Amino acid sequence: MSRISKKEIAGKLILIGRTVFLLINFVESSLSGTKSTANPRETTRTAQSNFQMVKNGRSPWGIQFK
């Protein structure tokens, strides 16, 4: 069994989380029939800052990675 680093797991969790978030967003916007109010540029900025935090060994959700 190969050893998986915590940063790898964090990256995968963030990817999964972002995908789920986007899916929910899409379903919500299609149900309400209105355009999503979320600014796509804003979402990208959040994702990038989250990625930076994980690279620095911290999670945006307050979990500590060593």
Keywords:
single chain; 66 residues; mainly alpha; 2 helices
Number of contiguous helices: 2
Overall number of strands: 0
Distance between the termini: 21 Å
Low-confidence region ranges: none
* Quaternary assembly: single chain
Helix vs. strand class: mainly alpha
Integer tally of domains: 1
Overall pLDDT level = 71
Please state the CA-atom Rg, rounded to the nearest Å.
Answer: 15 Å
Strand content: under 5%
- SSE order, as H and E? HH
Helical content band: 55-70%
* Biggest sheet record: none
Global outline: elongated
Write the SSE topology:
Layout: H1 6-32, H2 40-55
Helix pairs in contact: 1-2
Describe this structure in words.
With 66 residues, the protein is mainly α. It has one domain (6-55). The protein is built from two helices and no strands. Helix 1 runs antiparallel to helix 2. The protein starts with 5 loop residues before the first helix and ends in an 11-residue tail after the last helix.
Concise overview:
Helix content is 65%, strand content 0%. It is mainly α and 66 residues long. It has one domain.
